[in-house]
Amino acid sequence: MLFSAILALIVTASLVAATPSSVPGSPIVARGGDGSVELAKRSGCGSTGPLGTGHFKWWITASCTPGTEMTCQATDASGCVPGDSSKIGSMEVDDPNDTVNIAKASNTNTLPFTCPPGGQIRCEANFNDNDDGPNYSLRGTSASLCLSSAYLLPALNSCLSVF
Q1: Is residue 38 exposed (0-12), middle (13-18) or buried (19+ Cβ within 10 Å)?
Q2: HSE (CB half, 13 Å, CA atoms) of 48?
């Protein structure tokens, strides 16, 4: 019984810590192509998507706490499970204020990074095919919440979204 109470407390604390860090009332918008395509719908687990068709590149821009260890993740269309990395050419994170690249990796669905001093990031997925977008959503997560949620709630097989 004591173990159940402690586990419930830890899970509750993790969920409270997963409160979105973007400005309240302003939904995170996914953008595609040259930025002229906007998509504000939300999929599950705090992700933005599913993304649209016709574009190789999709991204979200959000606030984060400087110095925080985070991940940029391309999930499946549901928004809760990491997406098929074989269809992702690269994942990138940059500072949208100066476009300095913070992190980049090929053929992955999850990209770890440290939130820059300006507290703003752009999380971007570059797909191998311009029609792969509808099979994916995008989200940002705290790296520590990824570890604790995977350990405490392995059935979720995902991180808790923070933006």
Answers
A1: exposed
A2: 26
Strand order in the sheet with 110-114: 110-114, 69-76, 136-142
Show the tokens assigned to 163: 């933006």
The answer to whether 104 and 123 have CB atoms below 8 angstroms apart is no
The continuous run of DSSP H or E covering 144 comes out as helix 143-152
For residue 66, give every residue at least 6 positions away whose Cβ sits within 8 Å of its Cβ, in sequence order, or none: 115, 116, 117, 118, 119
Q: Is this prediction's pTM over 0.85?
A: no
pLDDT number for residue 126: 96
Average confidence (pLDDT) per 10 residues, the chain, 163 residues: 44 37 56 84 88 91 93 95 96 92 96 95 94 92 56 45 57
For 9-13, which contacts have Cβ atoms below 8 Å and span 24 or more sequence positions? Answer: 10/148, 10/152, 11/152, 11/153
